[in-house]
Amino acid sequence: MKQSSQHRGELMAMNLRQRTLETSKRAVFIVVASMTLTLPLYSQQAALVNDAPTGASASTSQPESVASQQTQQEIVQELAAMKKRIAQLEAALASQKTQEQQTMVPEAVPARALQPTAVATPSGEVALSAPNTSPDAKPAKAEPFAFADWTWLNGNARTKTPAFDSKFFTPEIRADIDYVYDFNHPKDNTIGGSSEIFRSNEVHVTQLGVGGDFHYDNVRARLMTQFGLYSVTTPRNDASPARGQWDLANAYRYVSEAYGGYHFNALHGINVDAGIFMSYVGLFSYYNFDNWAYQPSYVSSNTPWFFNGVRVQIFPTEHLKIEPWFVNGWQAYGRFNNRPGVGGQILWRPNGWFSILGNQYALGEDTLNTPGRVRYHTDDSVEVKYYDQPQKFLSKAAFSLTGDLGCEHGGGVSCYGNSAKGPKQDFLGFMFYNRLWFDKDRYGLTLGGGKINNPGRYLVLLPPINGMTASSAAVNSPYFTENPGDPYKAWDASATFDYMPSQYITFRWEFDHRAANVPYFSGKNGITPPGGNTGDPTKPVAGWAPDLVKDENRLDLAILVKF
Fold it and tell me: What is the pLDDT of residues 521-538, one digit of tens each?
């Protein structure tokens, strides 16, 4: 209320000053007009006197003519001075209006809100109308989560301002180029068991994305392309294209995000979107620029990066988001069987240093050609910024903790242990990361890791042995099986150092150690048959076997860019 009263007072004062200036301006115009009208009358009167035939008039005509010329010159000079004064008054009025308008705009209002709004006229043309600055206008509700800076979060981009923006489109460009040194030295340069790293001892474009956000008249859309290794590896881990026609893997290959929707001005905002969108099950972002580490732990690396379906983002307050999903399946372009999946996210941020979220998924039948096998999964994370001293060398510190629990039942497996319904098939895991920022957030150091237990291996990423894909794995691999009851336990640890000279780039150095209870990672002789992939990957290759080992150590070097 205090700010509203001050706002009205400033508006009244501005209007009073403006009316005073306009009154002065009108007075000057009246004087100028009067003198302009007087001048021809005076000239006509002088001419009549000069034309009189009397001698007295003739004798005085010359002095009167000189006086008339002097008077006209004085009037012309006065007119010029008045015109100059009018120009000065107009300039002063324009300058004062600009300054007062800038003073009346709160600093927290985004620049986009100050731009004119397009309005359709009765003729069908588009006109521009100024934003509503009426003192009686209701204040807009707070934007969700706009009360704090969230660039410190793991999984959130740390860019504070876009390199370019407009009322209609906010572009986005991402580049992820890496060099991975694998201490196992696989001779085929192939790395398995990761959804972020795929080749060793080579420089590669892991991901290049171009796109952005469209926004106009409450209509919204987003498109992000993906080129590089992501355009092959991400579709490869989705078995749903094997069901039916039209080659879904290639149809979506070069798209990481693509959706359209509408924003409803209810509560603190409601968004309805349909298409492919990020799931963020596992906390880490699909884009490595946003993350504290390059190689996330299994809880994140083995769970969905995207969903294809419909979501509704509901913001009851500026601190809370409720987001239900209706999706084709678990990281699936299409459906694996005849039942889609449902789920959602709840995100709560009560202040600027604490964030808690939960992702839930249920009811999807997500094993290809196995109807009746239903999946459930819960993924929950907390992030805490426990230190924030920008003026000191250690400028910031935060940690993240994520826990996942899931299972499948039906179709020959059970959630609750080995029974007549089948062997136990579940997923249990966690990951923890602690990050420190130094020298005004120019440098970053992250230490972390995690662990999983996944009997049945239904979320274990199948190594690409002899070109094996998720689709062919439905038949089963002769070298690394995913049968009900097959055990799998793994753990990892990493240390990541970042140099961030600009908000738009990160230079990253990372060491990863990963281990499993069964041979899983690429060894020295690699996982590719001599001469390349040979025949059906579900059939053994005569005289050859992949070199799988129980652990690996890697050094990851990357340049990450986001505009």
Answer: 999 999 999 989 988 888
Q: Which residues pair with 438 in a beta bridge?
A: 394, 443
User: How far is the CA of 468 from the CAs of 345, 464, 481, 552, in angstroms?
Assistant: 33, 5, 11, 21
Alpha carbon separation from 112 to 75, 105, 115, 216, 441 (Å, rounded) = 51, 13, 6, 11, 28
Angle between helices 2-51 and 55-104 (to 10 degrees): 170
What one-letter code names the amino acid at 558? A
User: How many alpha carbons lie under 13 Å from residue 444 in its C-beta half-sphere?
Assistant: 32
516-533 burial code (b ≥16 CB/10 A, e <16): beeebbbbebbbbbeeee
> Rounded to whole angstroms, how far apart are CA atoms 158 and 187?
37
Residue 540 DSSP one-character state: P
Greater pLDDT, 225 or 30: 225
DSSP, res 541: P
> pTM score, two decimals?
0.74
SS3 251: helix
Q: Quickly count: other Cβ atoms within 10 Å of residue 112's Cβ.
A: 12
Asked whether 174 and 289 are in contact (CB, 8 A), the reply is yes
State phi, psi for 157 to the nearest 5 degrees.
Answer: -65, 145
Sequential DSSP letters for 37-86: HHHHHHHHHHHHHHH--SHHHHHHHHHHHHHHHHHHHHHHHHHHHHHHHH
What's the pLDDT tens digit per position in 215-265? Answer: 999 999 999 999 999 999 999 999 999 999 999 999 999 999 999 999 999
CA dist 154 and 425 (Å) reads 30
CA distance 69 to 67: 5
In terms of Cβ atoms closer than 10 Å to its own Cβ (0-12, 13-18, 19+), residue 60 is middle
